[in-house]
Write a structure and sequence with these properties.
Strand content: 25-35%
Distance between the termini: 19 Å
Radius of gyration: 17 Å
Helix content: 10-25%
Shape: globular
């Protein structure tokens, strides 16, 4: 959706890896597709294979370093939209639960209050569909842990529809895909330092 001498911003479809996976036939990914057109493009952050939406690639090592620092220092702001099961008790709030990889069952993540890494998600309910008993929710991950939004919503009692890792079967099969989309991103542009916003409307 955007490209200049420093950045490439793309809209990743659901079902496509961000980076090459392990094993045979796992080479096709968003990074490789972008590199076919912009050979100097380097991945800065990732989206789950099942998640769609905005992904930023840096052009060259210097820009990659600058953007990596921006992500690590939380100078990047992100918003997602999801469809979750049920009606949330509060229209907005925070989910503050430490996460760590569930090694015997990876790539699953679990809440661990002893050794989990701090993980914070802010949420806001946008709409409730009484007929389907599901809610459209806006999500802001303050931290960027693997599967953070998926686990946090499951722990809140409202798993994301179509989630093949964390939702019970009825909710998992309610959608042919994970209904989670990275819809908005604000980053400091590596050349100018000015904050730049990108948007991608959810396809659901």
């Amino acid at each position: 959706i955007f490209a200049d001498a420093q950045l490439v911003v793309v809209n990743k479809p659901a079902g496509l890896l961000s980076v090459p996976g392990r094993g045979e036939g796992m080479d096709d990914c968003m990074a490789r597709r972008v590199q076919a057109e912009y050979p100097d493009a380097l991945i800065v952050h990732r989206l789950d294979m099942s998640t769609s939406g905005l992904l930023v690639l840096a052009r060259g090592a210097a820009v990659h370093r600058a953007l990596s620092i921006a992500f690590q220092s939380r100078a990047v702001k992100k918003r997602y939209v999801a469809i979750v099961a049920g009606r949330l008790a509060q229209v907005s709030g925070e989910i503050d639960l430490p996460l760590i990889c569930d090694w015997p069952n990876r790539p699953r993540q679990i809440v661990d209050r002893q050794i989990g890494k701090p993980s914070l998600t802010r949420y806001r309910v946008l709409a409730y569909d009484a007929a389907q008993d599901c809610s459209r929710v806006e999500l802001e991950p303050v931290t960027g842990r693997s599967h953070q939004l998926r686990v946090h919503l499951q722990q809140l009692g409202h798993p994301i529809l179509g989630d093949d890792l964390y939702a019970p079967e009825a909710i998992r099969t309610a959608s042919p895909r994970l209904l989670l989309h990275a819809e908005w991103l604000e980053i400091p542009h590596p050349a100018s330092g000015l904050r730049q916003q990108f948007e991608s409307t959810a396809p659901f």
